Give the backbone structure.
Amino acid sequence: MPAAEMQVLQGMGVSSGIAIGRAVCIETRGPDVFRFHVPDDQLEAEVERVREGARHAQTELKRVRARAEEDLGNDLAAIFDAHVLLLSDRHFLGRVEERIRTQHVNAEWAVHKTAEELDDRFAHMDDTYMRERSEDLTDVSRHLLRSLQGIDHHHLSELPDDIVIVADDLTPSDAIRLGRERVIGFAIESGGRTSHTTIIARSLNIPAVAGLVGVMGLLCDEAPIIVDGETGTVILHPTPEALQRYRARKAELERRDRDLLATRELAAVTRDGVEIALMANIDLPEEVEEVALFGAAGVGLYRSEFLYIEKSPHLPTEEEHVQIYRRLIELAAPHPAIIRTYDLGGRKLAREMMATAEENPVLGLRGIRLTLARTEVFRSQIRALYRAGVHGDLWIMLPMVSTVEEVRRFRAFAGEVMADMEREGIPFRRDVRLGVMIEVPAAAMIADLLAREADFFSIGTNDLIQYSLAVDRNNEHVASLYQPLHPAILRMLRFVIDSARAAGIEIGLCGEMAADPRYAMLLVGLGLRRLSMSPRQVPEVKSWLRETTAADLADLAASCMSHSTAAEVQEHLDRHFACAISPAPAT
Ligand code: PEP
Ligand code: MG
């Protein structure tokens, strides 16, 4: 067989580093399912197709189970037993067959609609066991559809090491689960720099490229692949020369990272003596050690919802919350640990908390709105936060605030929680600072009013940009319109920073914008003295800071504010700073 030709694709580099491995394709959006009319005389043949598909899917799953048992042990492999059983469950298959016969539809459509109907019923039951069955059902119907469409599928445990996941889309929880297996890289069709999935890739330090429209159609499983998360280049079937160049480039980047790490003891201070707190954004428990490792000045954002997402469908207990918060506070000391209350909703949807599926969850019951709507569910987190406060410098931060009332209602709720604990004789700290994230345009525009209610602000540019520019942060088709340097964003930043200063409250920024050294310099020029980012970015931003003066950056920011477009601001920044990173190898 002739060797496949090398192909070079260009996407967005969203998590740096280079991965050289073998592709494993995962379709998460589910196969397209079309509806066809089936005439009377072909109905029984269509029913037989479903039965044959179910037998085939069962054989496949048993094969996967055997392999999983070898690699992961019987307990984990037993998950597949439920799936195998569902494939012979008359309750499910009987309904599919009935739908074919009564509605004269093709097997694929009948499977899809029956699974959708049962899933909806299970998902709204109070019983956790039944809700878990709805997830099994979704998996099983997907297996069955693939089997009907003649697509075979694999399980990761069947594959060799050095896996690069090639996917149409990945949820943040998919990325966590896969990232902890033998995955060394991600190449994804959807997504943007600030989608939560790519934030997770960075947290796990796995190179990733997003926005690779059509990549799924270009390769098959186990094809050799290179992912360059710096430049956004992905190479399919690399030639021996390309492999050699990328191995050298990988070694060079690793050397650069080691050199930067050596600067961790140095102060984050400009040449004219202005100190900047470079803090760490933490998503996963395994990252907490990195706060000290990369010399971060405490934790500027702990996304507590990932604690929930990892345990879903179970809620973490109050004790589990206390333990992780205490650890964060102790590792951040002598600096603060800023812990954000659950920002569930949007793509980080906790299905069992919602009464109905939302048509547009990104504008729905998420963040502080969900917390205030379901106080009984969130009480344990709030208790744990005030309890953990006794262990050091904890600041509590509220996500997705858009009104002053939300802050007042939260304070009242926290007051009730503390009164309960006082009655129960449980030690807690009352004077914990309470801040708000400025990530909704309305909050930015009333920053002066919110500053009277909050002890501090943290600007969340990931969402602020999404909502201000009406550009989905996760949609590759509008990625070029997602512009951190848009004059509207720069004006909002200036107004929010000035409002916080006038009110005399602390202000920082924890969106991904802070992790890009050029943007970070602009933010310091706009007056910020506290920036939070992935801990791995801290050494590089620090090295840029130490080369410049705050006075120079203030001038730079003033001139950036006078431009009319993001492209002009970008050009101005690029001209101001010499390019610090050596170019990627030619492919
Ligand atoms: C933000 O919106 O900028 C932010 C930091 O929060 P998240 O990325 O979790 O939405
Ligand atoms: Mg946000």
The longest helix spans residues 43-72. The chain has three domains: 7-29+155-258, 40-148, 264-580. The radius of gyration is 26 Å.
